User: Which sequence fits this backbone?
C-alpha cells in the first residue's frame, strides 16, 4: 500500500513539473521572464486606432474613377472591424456603380467592384 502511495506522489510531482516546464496554465513568456502585455485590437480605444481620415479615403476612391467627383459618392460609412478602421461605400459615375472597401490605416483598397 505504501509503495502505491509513493508511486502516486511521484507521478503527481512529475506531472506538475512537466506542466511548469511547458507553460501549461500560464503565460509561457511571463514564465520565461519576458513580461509583455499583449494588447488585443478590441482593447484599443477608437481614438487611438490609426486612421488616414474620410477626406483621404474619398480622394483615393475618386482617383480610381476618371472624371468622378466627391459628389459621385452616394454611400460612405466608417466602421471599426477587429480593431481596424475600414471605410466602405458606393460611387456612381457615367452609368456605373463602384462599390469599395478601404483600410482606414493604410488607404489600401480591400474591395473594388464595378456594376453597370
Assistant:
Amino acid at each position: 500500500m505504501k509503495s502505491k502511495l509513493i508511486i502516486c506522489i511521484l507521478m503527481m510531482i512529475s506531472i506538475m513539473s512537466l506542466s511548469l516546464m511547458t507553460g501549461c496554465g500560464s503565460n509561457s513568456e511571463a514564465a520565461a521572464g519576458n513580461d509583455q502585455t499583449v494588447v488585443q485590437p478590441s482593447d484599443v480605444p477608437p481614438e487611438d486606432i490609426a486612421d488616414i481620415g474620410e477626406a483621404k479615403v474619398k480622394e483615393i476612391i475618386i482617383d480610381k474613377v476618371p472624371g468622378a467627383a466627391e459628389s459621385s459618392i452616394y454611400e460612405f460609412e466608417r466602421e471599426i472591424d477587429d480593431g481596424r478602421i475600414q471605410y466602405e461605400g458606393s460611387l456612381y459615375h457615367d452609368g456605373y456603380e463602384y462599390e469599395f472597401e478601404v483600410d482606414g490605416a493604410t488607404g489600401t483598397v480591400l474591395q473594388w467592384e464595378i456594376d453597370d
Summary: Residues 18-22, 24-32 have pLDDT under 50 and may be disordered. The first strand starts at residue 73 and ends at 81.
